[in-house]
From TrEMBL:
<feature type="active site" description="Proton acceptor">
    <location>
        <position position="69"/>
    </location>
</feature>
<keyword id="KW-1015">Disulfide bond</keyword>
<feature type="disulfide bond">
    <location>
        <begin position="71"/>
        <end position="76"/>
    </location>
</feature>
<keyword id="KW-0376">Hydrogen peroxide</keyword>
<feature type="binding site">
    <location>
        <position position="75"/>
    </location>
    <ligand>
        <name>Ca(2+) 1</name>
    </ligand>
</feature>
<keyword id="KW-0479">Metal-binding</keyword>
<dbReference type="Pfam" id="PF00141">
    <property type="entry name" value="peroxidase"/>
</dbReference>
<protein>
    <recommendedName>
        <fullName>Peroxidase</fullName>
        <ecNumber>1.11.1.7</ecNumber>
    </recommendedName>
</protein>
<comment type="similarity">
    <text>Belongs to the peroxidase family. Ascorbate peroxidase subfamily.</text>
</comment>
<feature type="binding site">
    <location>
        <position position="249"/>
    </location>
    <ligand>
        <name>Ca(2+) 2</name>
    </ligand>
</feature>
<keyword id="KW-0325">Glycoprotein</keyword>
<dbReference type="InterPro" id="IPR010255">
    <property type="entry name" value="Haem_peroxidase_sf"/>
</dbReference>
<dbReference type="InterPro" id="IPR002016">
    <property type="entry name" value="Haem_peroxidase"/>
</dbReference>
<feature type="binding site">
    <location>
        <position position="70"/>
    </location>
    <ligand>
        <name>Ca(2+) 1</name>
    </ligand>
</feature>
<feature type="disulfide bond">
    <location>
        <begin position="38"/>
        <end position="118"/>
    </location>
</feature>
<dbReference type="InterPro" id="IPR000823">
    <property type="entry name" value="Peroxidase_pln"/>
</dbReference>
<keyword id="KW-0408">Iron</keyword>
């Protein structure tokens, strides 16, 4: 009888540990973080994101990109949201973000609404970015996933780190692989997360060199793009990253297979064995892309979060407390 009791206790203990491990990641984050302290937080973020996308569908890609650009610079800590001050070297002014990163007003609106329903600032700006990215993907027809939460906000930013760490549209495949490896992400993550370019647009300045100087590109596609993007001027003119820029689908991958990748860094995925195989696989398998995208987004969201007593919960996402 005593043996049975010990066994039962051991079973309960193992089950409890298993549940805790499932709910929390190695990073100390948990998908249930706000369940008790503010159960209305996530529904509020979803509502504001959906309202923003109802006004402008392109905003979904912009919010997804903000989370990506945040995580690649010293971890997912909301540093991209900080404005320039005498002591803050704002990442908004870094080359990949200047006159390009957008959606900051939507994040401000989310923060205001969430703090109202929670009664005080308990939801970090870094978590808002992570949830808004997921909700944007879902609103545009893509997969959902359980976002791990409990990040805190940075009290610093680094323009130089943003310039160094955010992948450039001109990068070749070895540079991209190294860039992702530096963040703890592998070649599959590289291809899967590049698939976020199934949404949104790019500026002429980011694809001009490709359409005037590269040869691994469909001639008719080049002719069309040259009507949008002249050799001189028109830097901010937009072209869609795939044929359906407001729909989360696999046309990004089928475009690469047809040599119609808009950015050099996109088309470069076909230059390697493993990455090329993944591109071709996803071009014909939306279900697998969805599943892998969700997994890679969770993995990216785990990059160096601030937890415990590190960082703070900002009262205003644009400035430190």
């Amino acid at each position: 009888m005593e043996k049975m009791n010990i066994r039962s206790l051991l079973y309960l203990f193992v089950s409890l540990i298993s549940c805790i491990a499932t709910a929390s990641s190695n990073s100390g984050l948990s998908s249930h973080y706000y369940d008790r302290i503010c159960p209305e937080a996530l529904p509020t973020i979803k509502r504001v994101v959906e309202d923003a996308l109802a006004q402008e569908q392109r905003m979904g890609a912009s919010l997804l990109r903000l989370h990506f650009h945040d995580c690649f610079v010293n971890g997912c800590d909301g540093s991209i949201l900080l404005d320039q001050t005498p002591t803050i070297d704002s990442e908004k002014n870094a080359a990949p973000n200047a006159n390009s990163a957008r959606g900051f007003e939507v994040i401000d609106k989310i923060k205001d609404e969430v703090d109202k329903v929670c009664g005080r600032p308990v939801v970090s700006c870094a978590d808002i970015l992570a949830v808004a990215a997921r909700d944007s993907v879902v609103a545009l027809g893509g997969p959902s996933w359980k976002v791990r939460l409990g990040r805190r906000d940075s009290t610093t930013a680094s323009q130089s780190a943003a310039n160094a760490n955010i992948p450039a549209p001109s990068m070749n495949l070895p540079a991209l692989i190294k860039n992702f490896e530096d963040q703890g992400l592998d070649e599959e993550d590289l291809v899967v997360l590049s698939g976020a370019h199934t949404l949104g647009f790019a500026q002429c300045r980011n694809f001009r060199d490709r359409i005037y100087n590269e040869t691994n590109i469909d001639p008719a596609f080049v002719s069309h793009l040259q009507t949008i993007c002249p050799q001189v001027g028109g830097d901010s003119r937009l072209a869609p990253l795939d044929p359906t820029p407001n729909s989360f689908d696999v046309k990004y991958f089928s475009s690469l297979a047809s040599k119609k990748g808009l950015l050099s860094s996109d088309q470069a995925l076909l230059d390697g064995g493993e990455t090329a195989e993944l591109v071709l696989k996803y071009s014909g398998d939306a279900e697998e892309f969805w599943e892998d995208f969700a997994e890679s987004m969770i993995k990216m969201g785990d990059i160096k979060p601030l937890t415990g007593n590190r960082g703070e919960i900002r009262n205003d996402c644009r400035k430190v407390n």
